[in-house]
């Protein structure tokens, strides 16, 4: 267990405000990209298949971000994603945002697996559960 999903993202012009630093809501967009790629690459089901065919979504029910240092256009942000907690239908994701090995931000996000037709929480799909557990910090 204790795997870490690593996702490098360039900081683009579109991410930045007039001061030349990343506009804080953009970090949530970037983290969402990390979550989508984690589901696709690490859990083994493309996000489009989850949504369109399986009718399972992963909405955010809680999110918090601590900003340690600014990032600028041209920087590369390395996200490291870990699972801090796994419940019956929810997962707490812990994102660490690094540049050159230094902490720049940390996002804690709770997602819930949801039936998109009934808009109700459902258990984490059985075929995904073992792959989610691989990223669990302490099983």
Describe the structure concisely.
The chain has 139 residues and is α+β, with helices and mostly antiparallel strands. It has a single domain, classed as Hotdog Thioesterase (Thiol Ester Dehydrase, Chain A), CATH 3.10.129.
How would you explain this protein's 3D organization?
With 139 residues, the chain is of the alpha+beta class. 22% of the residues lie in helices and 37% in strands. The chain has three helices and eight strands; from the N terminus they run βααβββββββα. The strands form two sheets. A five-stranded antiparallel sheet has the order 1-4-5-6-3, with helices on one face. Strands 2-7-8 form a three-stranded antiparallel sheet. The model has no long low-confidence stretch (mean pLDDT 96).
Q: Name the structural class.
A: alpha+beta
Taking Cα atoms only, what radius of gyration do you get, to the nearest Å? 15 Å
- What would the CATH topology be? Thiol Ester Dehydrase, Chain A
End-to-end span in angstroms?
Answer: 8 Å
| β-strand amount | 35-45%
Question: Which architecture would the CATH scheme give at its second level?
Answer: Roll
Main beta sheet: strand number and arrangement? 5 strands, antiparallel
Q: Order of strands across the biggest sheet?
A: 1-4-5-6-3
Number of domains: 1
Please trace the helix and strand order, writing H or E for each element.
Answer: EHHEEEEEEEH
Under the CATH scheme, which class?
Alpha Beta
Counted by DSSP, the helix tally is 3
Can you give the mean pLDDT? 96
Form type: globular
List segments where confidence is low: pLDDT < 50 over at least 5 consecutive residues.
none
Count the E strands: 8
Find the CATH superfamily. Answer: Hotdog Thioesterase
Share of residues in helices? 10-25%
